[in-house]
Amino acid sequence: MLIYIITPLATLLFIVLLDTVGELSMSPKKGEVPDYPINLSDIPELSSNITAEEEEKRDKKLKLYRQLYNIRDLVFNPYRTIRDEPRYTFFFGIPLGFYYLANLPETLKKSINLNFHWNPNFAHISDSSVQFISAIDDYIVIFIVIALIPFIIFYEIRAWRMRKIDERMPDFLRNLSSMNDSGLLLCNSLKIMAESKMGILSKELKKLKEDLSWGTSASRALIKMENNIRTASSSRILHTLIKANESTSDLKSVLSITAEQVKSEERLKRERSSEMVVYVVTIYVSFFVFLFIVYVLAVYFFPESSSFKGSSQGMGYGGIGNGYFNIQEYTMLMYHSALVQAFASGLIAGKMGQGSIYMGLKYSVSMMIITYVVFTMFV
Hints:
Blueprint: H1 2-21, H2 52-76, H3 78-84, H4 90-102, H5 106-115, H6 127-181, H7 186-195, H8 202-213, H9 218-229, H10 232-247, H11 252-314, H12 327-354, H13 361-377
Helix pairs in contact: 1-12, 2-3, 4-6, 5-6, 6-7, 6-11, 6-12, 6-13, 7-8, 8-9, 9-10, 10-11, 11-12, 11-13, 12-13
């Protein structure tokens, strides 16, 4: 009960506590992009002669087209779709895991179908249950690893992309500020910026330049760029730039102040990340200490206790605890406790070190693999 209920529950409560304290570092979450609906009936310059009912029908068709476009984009450009939404990896990660489970050895399948009888007992687990669980727990660990690794890879790619975009934002704002100071309009400044080397922002700026070349206003082009980038920091910056452009043509002061603010925020994020590395290392060290203790118990203490109990009973004494001692059961419990500790410690490390439990899945999987290797090869 301590292993399977108390430890996960305590981990969940601790993560909730970290959320109440506040975000400790950069969390690669998508920014909430505001909508800017435009109805033809709201534009007096266009005599569309469209009634409200017809416009509602056209709006439904447009939404349907967007859904079909998203499906087509998912089919023909799966990398970008999965990069933006890593949870889609579970659509093929989990089936791969089940495919692995479908190829279990025939002897194990027969034991699952015929020989397993569940006997719930918190004091001791029956011998048949111990044998069954010991036979399948390794396969379940590998199933979890197979299901999580694609998600971890694409989530890390998305987080790296978001960090690089946010790091480029201060330079983007400073360049716009200097161009605006020289008398250039915002749309012309953006076209010039598209030709400069802006790293990961260059591709989005070229798309923005194409929109401007087709006659799109600077505000609408920035809205599209905001929708494409969709990071928390860049979304806030571009939204501020859009509102400032709608209010005044003199953007120098707004851009300068925003650039300094973003630069200071990035500096604080880097300082927090460097400070939180110590906590991640501490969690790893504590896990390895726990794993070493569990290994000593499983390899040395339990066999000695079992032999001592057998000899003491032969001499007429009750032995340790005067009860039933199944070494396989206690070894299994130590293995499971190490796996639960590995998964929980990884989530906490991600939350403390990088502000997101999803960023901690890589730590969880790495520690679970280490536990699996230790108990498979050395125990």
